Amino acid sequence: MEHLELFFKSIFIDNMVFATFLGMCSYLAVSKKVTTAVGLGAAVIFVLAVTVPLNWLLDQYLLQEGALVWLGSEYAEYDLSFLSFIMFIATIATMVQLVEIIVEKFSPSLYNSLGIFLPLIAVNCAILGGSLFMQSREIPSLGLALTYGVGSGIGWFLAILAIAAIREKIRYSSVPPALRGLGITFIITGLMAIGFMSFGGMLTGGDEEKKRKKILKLHYLII
Questions:
Q1: How far apart are CA 28 and CA 162, in angstroms?
Q2: Residues 192, 199: contact at Cβ < 8 Å?
Q3: What does the pLDDT look like over 61-118, one tens digit per residue?
Q4: C-alpha dihedral (35, 168, 191, 184), degrees to nearest 10
Q5: pTM here?
Q6: Residues with Cβ < 8 Å from 54, sequence gap 6 or more?
Q7: From 31's CA, which of 53, 71, 167, 190 has a CA 20 to 30 Å away?
């Protein structure tokens, strides 16, 4: 149940684009066509699914204070957390290079369509954000880190797929000249973010109801 809750929460409630507005550069630049959006979205899912668990292992067994205790008791006081950014980015860059090699080998047309934005996944703030959120939220296990990485990637994929589909259709609409291009895209993104906010009670609604009943019960007891 914990895995399922984290999975849906990372897709809908803590969506990388609509909740934290991370990865907006690629989201806006590669969302003109659905085909390129699907390709980049799949690459982001893969990179997040691999880098978040790998960075969890680095954080647990290398970077945290006392993480090096497995080397011996004399290393228990070591704290390498100041290396978090460097280590996380190095892991992400390695995985992005792997994705770039695979895409170039098996789908040259997609590789050419994505252009510079494929290697730029390495500096996509959504990718680094996934690892940093994992660290700050103190996700307790490797399995949950994998679930969070996959869920965050799918959330970003759904966001870029949705805006790409809308932008393809909106070409044939009479958009006011002042709003054409990025203007109308920002407005649609804001409206979609408001829509995704409605998922906020999907996993917390039951808890709020229990709290309300408890408060009412206490109120009746006081009366």
A1: 12
A2: no
A3: 988 888 888 888 888 888 888 899 999 999 998 888 888 888 888 888 878 877 777 7
A4: 120
A5: 0.82
A6: 91, 95
A7: 53
